[in-house]
Amino acid sequence: MSTDVTEASEETLLRPITSLSRGYLVALGLGCAAIAFWLAFYVQQLYHGLIVTNLGDWGTGGGVPWGLYIGAFIWWVGIAHGGIILSAAVRLIGLDTYQPVARIAELLTIAALSCAGLFILIHVGRPDRLVTAVIPAWPTRVQWSPLMWDVTVITAYFVLTGTYLMMTVRYDIHRLRERLPDTFDRIYDLLLVGYSEAEDEVVERMVWWLAFAIIIMAPLLLHGGVIPWLFAVLPSMAGWHGGVQGPSFLSIALTSAVSGIIVIAAAFRWAYDWKRLIPDEIFRGLAKWLGFFGLMFLWLQLQQVLTGIFAAPTTLQHATEVKVSTPLYWVAIGLVALALVYIFASALEPSLFSIPRIVVTALAVLVGTLIEKTLFVVEGIQHAHFQLYDGVPGPYTPSLVELSSVVGTIGIVVLFFLVVSKVIPVVELHAIESDHEEVER
Amino acid sequence: MTGITDESAPVTFDDEWERRAEQRLEETEFDTELGLELARDVQEVIAGEMSECEFREKYHDTVREEFGEDAREIAGLDAIGDDTETAASIEDRSRGFFEDEESRRSFVKKGGVAAMGLSMLLGGGDSPGESATAAATADDEDDEGTRYGMTINLNNCDGCLACMAACKQEHGLSRGAHWMYVLTYEDEDQADENFLVRPCQHCTNSPCTKVCPVGARHTRKEDGLVLTDYDICIGCRYCEVSCPYGVNYFQWGEPDVPDEEIDPSHQIDERGRWVGARPPKGVMGKCTFCADRQDGQMGEEKIGTTACEEACSMNAIHFGDLNDPDSAPNKHLEQYRGSQQNDLSAFPNRTDDTVSTFKLLEERGTSPNIHYIGNEPSQHARQVPGPVTYEEVGLVDNRKDAVLDDGPTATNGGEQA
């Protein structure tokens, strides 16, 4: 059953493209300001090197070589993967209720993957070599280095999501072309190259298979695989090693992605008065998913803490003791736990539910997951198996240069949505087409 | 039934233990006394006070008599147990039988001790640890061609830090980057002052080369040196987080020694790759085993030497080809062992010598190419100030505090701040 959005017209759908408000310009300004804020710091890093961060060498050096950059990288990849899983589920198993937010999820995936890629660029000491060194090394290194698997799979996902988006957007643009602004004609021409209505049925089938590939690949390879394997396969760092990282990362990906979709969908709903296009029902549903994934997240944290405390090998026990005695860890867990309390309370007592409240809840979860992932990276390397050095565990608090990168990437996502929403409909035409029929498979 | 008692067993068993053990053994159809003795001696094997072979030999006949077979038998080696064979020769033969050290150990654990079961049946302690097999074990590494490595005699080290200073000088390292590092530590079961001399271990099974996404960190196949190609490294620091030893030093800012002060012959190796001297900004560096010396760039006479070895006046560092029995590391180990012989005439079951050797974190499976003579630091060991401070020899210990926290002002066009 689809959500009843038939009353919403094409006009409603095209509101972001056809209107220009002061609020839009303010948001655009804020997005650009956030990016400029980060760029000002990043220029320093390019000039002076990574010495402007608070990172250092582990061992004698009294520092940690990986920090917020890698934590934020995982966080963005998680949001991206969760987003595309949600969108794929809509297409694959006919979760039509969420069709109005499917494209938002896809766009979020593209934006978040870009931010994740950017964090790799920011993190490395020689960003200029990312192309010159990585491409020639690919054929011989991809079967070895988890980092190379990572780059490969992220690229694959980027292409997959881009294709997916491109294929579905052609249908909409073709039908809405008359009402779209002439300014972007060239873009629309390009998007519609070779389009004919005869392809719709084929495209829908192809999209179904793409969604199928994504659903299979995501838990096995992405946030349930390659990303956690960056850490899980290293036996020297007790806090990183082990099989629980895959499921744990996946739970975080889904939790933070649903939160991201809630925030962005609510922003569009508020800005363009889309109460009918993205009805309450969608947010209630997303809240339930957030509750479920959040519960998985907490449960997997419990698994790690319990196995790390109860008769664990000394280094793992030490790493876990440090984890549970870190106040910031409990801030992260507390934020997700509070979100759960609200979500379950509002499920029992529907009057407690409101869109602003669920947005605050989602933001809390996003903050919580970013903290948890960064702590995971930092504490993992702070408590290496070899503890003889006086400089181990080294201290780490992110520098302003590092913190600015999170602000900057959030700015990038904001800017991305603001720009894209001016060019293509961020809600699919299918979402308002009551006569939309499932294609025979 | 012949019982062999050992009054001098260092593991004491209280009456309660003995009563429970007897009770449980009596429930079986087998000899209670034999079971108790086996259990006691297993404790000694676990503690490393008795070798597995000795243990096996001691009870071989009685076990066969009692059980009809000796389940502890090492497959394929029927002749073991022949009274004319020494414990050492059995150890050697068992080593040859297994393809690698890992499987031999795992067999020794499973077949030799655990299969005995009696000790475990009685709750007689932890599973046999690595100590049961002496640290000075046969190498499982590739023994073809040259494999550079070191024997570092920690008993000779006096903590003067000359090796660290020489390394910094020769490679133009920035402050706080200690490709060679000597740390003084205190440990629970060791006398007050101990040293650990820690260069890169140049592991045969190195995690850093596996994880490197671009192949910058690589093993030079000619001689086993683990090197970083400064022209390729993207500075992701994955090698650093994968290394269990903490030997990597990233070039966070501009290097203290500018490029023009470094002779290109020290930088470019015989294959034409930039692997020598300190890394440029944004790239990872670590001990190279003085690749330039090994390539003959510093003259024929320097081949097979390192800066740290040369600077060591205590005869602690011995560098050379581990595959060559006559190389400095192998010769030193042999001579040192020769000088620390056990009195086998009085104690025939003891090892040939009293020399304790180990490889650092060998259980991580990295196959390190540094052999240490001396005691291995335990998990409880902590670094303490040494007899000579790092500052006294012009070095900075904690790079984070003393250099990196100053940010870009810490480096100023290659000059020290």
Q: How would you sum up this structure, described in words?
A:
Helix content of chain A is 71%, strand content 0%. By secondary structure, chain A is mainly alpha-helical. The two termini of chain A are 18 Å apart. Chain A has 16 helices and no strands. Chain A has a domain at 10-236 and 244-282 and 396-432. In chain A, helix 5 packs antiparallel against helix 8. Chain A has helices at residues 10-13, 15-18, 22-48, 68-92, 99-123, 129-132, 134-141, 146-176, 185-191, 199-232, 245-272, 280-309, 314-324, 327-348, 355-382, 400-423. Chain B folds into 2 domains: 15-132, no CATH class; 148-416, Alpha-Beta Plaits, CATH 3.30.70.20. In chain B, 29% of the residues lie in helices and 11% in strands. Chain B has helices at residues 15-26, 32-46, 52-67, 87-97, 101-113, 118-121, 162-171, 207-211, 238-242, 264-267, 291-294, 307-311, 328-339, 399-402, and strands spanning 148-153, 181-186, 194-198, 217-219, 226-228, 249-250, 284-285, 317-321, 357-358, 370-373, 382-384, 411-412, 415-416. In chain B, strands 8-1-10-9 form a 4-stranded mixed β-sheet. A 3-stranded antiparallel β-sheet of chain B has the order 3-2-11, with no helix packed on it. In chain B, strands 4-5 form a two-stranded antiparallel sheet. Chain B is elongated, with a radius of gyration of 25 Å. The termini of chain B are far apart. Residues 1-12, 73-140 and 413-417 of chain B have low confidence and may be disordered. Classes of the chains: A mainly alpha (441), B alpha+beta (417). Chains A and B meet through helix 3, helix 7 and helix 8 of A and strand 2, helix 8, helix 9, strand 6 and helix 14 of B.
Brief summary of the model shown:
The complex is a heterodimer of chains A (441) and B (417). Chain A has 441 residues and is mainly alpha-helical.
Write the layout of secondary structure elements.
The complex is a heterodimer of chains A (441) and B (417).
Chain A: H1 10-13, H2 15-18, H3 22-48, H4 68-92, H5 99-123, H6 129-132, H7 134-141, H8 146-176, H9 185-191, H10 199-232, H11 245-272, H12 280-309, H13 314-324, H14 327-348, H15 355-382, H16 400-423
Helix pairs in contact in A: 3-16, 4-5, 4-10, 4-11, 4-15, 5-8, 5-11, 5-16, 8-10, 10-11, 11-12, 11-15, 12-13, 12-14, 12-15, 14-15
Chain B: H1 15-26, H2 32-46, H3 52-67, H4 87-97, H5 101-113, H6 118-121, E1 148-153, H7 162-171, E2 181-186, E3 194-198, H8 207-211, E4 217-219, E5 226-228, H9 238-242, E6 249-250, H10 264-267, E7 284-285, H11 291-294, H12 307-311, E8 317-321, H13 328-339, E9 357-358, E10 370-373, E11 382-384, H14 399-402, E12 411-412, E13 415-416
Parallel strand pairs in B: 1-10
Antiparallel strand pairs in B: 1-8, 2-3, 2-11, 4-5, 6-7, 9-10, 12-13
Helix pairs in contact in B: 1-2, 2-3
